[in-house]
Design a protein that fits this description.
This protein is an alpha/beta fold. The chain contains eight helices and nine strands. The strands form two sheets. Strands 1-8-7-2-5-3-4 form a seven-stranded mixed beta sheet, sandwiched between helices. A two-stranded parallel ribbon has the order 6-9. Helix 5 runs parallel beside helix 6.
Amino acid sequence: MKVAIGGPLKVTFRPWVEGLEHIPAEGPAILASNHLSFSDSFFLPAILDRKVTFIAKAEYFTTPGVKGRLTAAFFKGVGQLPVDRSGARGAGEAAIKSGIDVLERGELFGIYPEGTRSPDGRLYRGKPGGLARVALATGAPVIPVAMIDTEKIQPPGQVMPKLMRPGIRIGKPLDFSRYQGMDHDRFVLRAVTDEVMYEIMKLSGQEYVDIYATAAKRQIADAAKADREAEKAAKAALAQAEKDQAKKEMEEAEAAAEAAAQEEAEAEEAETEGREAQ
């Protein structure tokens, strides 16, 4: 997959990289990255000589049919591990176990602390459950990574990707051995996660928002829904106003017609009376 996908990806988009020397030549390490685009999971492994294992939803591996088998083969080839997300707690535990297994084999484990893609290019609060627990359980160093401009290559709704150079900044490894044995202390998990997110923010230059990206997506969706409903209400009000105006104009026209007919009738009556008087 590094040859079939990574090679053409590097030749076509020519991603620039800083801090590649911080990736160890061997041994376990956690790559904690911001998440701007679906392509993040391809650009990052493409520029590394070592394999990086990420987590993907189980549906990518279980879809039936030829297309499903090809999709499953693709995600396996690029180093994705299936995780069943049907239960929130079960999914989290499965992700943690998968990450620990990868690191115990001495490999690189990639994770997005935000938990989902950024909806607007800003950096959101990291979720402490996965990253911190895996780091403290294994003692593996955490390497902060910043993906730059990957969301601009293929924005939502755009079919053809834009040819441009994304960037990847890799920071110095972070050692959390001082928290060894404290992987179930929620305050420690929060402190570890926040420290990693701070380093990612410095590398990426993103604006930091102290809420979860999932909450931001709900807010954006709710705001979009409210805008649609407001637009619908405005259109309905405009249509009603136009209907009322048309009715008023019709009534005024009918009244004018009746007045004109009355005047004409009165004129005819006056003319008749005049002739009779003569």
